[in-house]
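hey so i finally got around to running the thing on that chain from the lab meeting. sorry it took forever, my laptop kept dying and i had to restart like 3 times. anyway pasting the input first so we r on the same page abt which one it is
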Amino acid sequence: MPPITLSLSCACQTITGTITIPLSNTPLPLEFCHCTKCRHSSGQLAISCFTCPRAPNNGPPTLQITSKTQPTAYKTSEELTRYFCHKCGASIYMHIVESGDFEVCSGVLGQVEGAVRFKQHIFVESTRDGGMSAWIEGPKWKGWAEKSEMFSVAEADEERGLEQRGGGEKRRLQGYCHCRGVEFYITPPDDDETENNVSSPPPVPNLPFLLIPHVLILTLTSTQESKSSQSQSQPQTADKWWLRASGTKYLAGLCACNSCRLATGYDLQAWAFVPKPHIRQLDGKE
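ok and heres what got predicted. didnt touch it at all, straight out
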């Protein structure tokens, strides 16, 4: 039977291409990689990718870039180079130097049903707490699949609980990209001094695509009804909708909309809602 050809495109369609897959190879196994380099070079909790099939007789990978513009290269190590759209930033594929394989970012595919299927998580140990693997069932490897031990989210939670037990100084959350061209930190959501500076609460977002409708929609509905029932002569105090777990965690969710998928190159985009006063530059300025 003839192979199938899948189209790919980034959000702005500056980069387009095709991948040819023999039917005997479908569905291709898809992995979520949680390693530090992948997370900080993409901004994602984990990246989703699969190995591009090769032409018959161990020929070259069947990925073909059909656009006039080629993806921009970014070398994150001697072993791997990542390619992305210079305009919208979408990740397209990665080139593994030693094997010559292409790891294709699954979010840019026009079709995934029947072509690829999630198989496992790799390098989960880099996250310390399991990261996104705690929400997506599947084998969780500490490092490379089949070459490392399995990762246990329960054991990681227990270890982190022992570390945090007894209180102590609150930890700030550090953020940076892979090349450290961007660096910042976030103060904890229960930092009273910072939270008191949120004098004008951020507006309630209209984001029904967050994959936590049972939490978010009920909260937003309750907040909006509460506001509408108040008299205009009375001061309005908006609920702190961006906080969860008794004010100790920021509201976050996963988005799988086409815009996020095509603009990142990956199937799932993670967002956290953090008011601006909690986001600081390294010198402490907002």
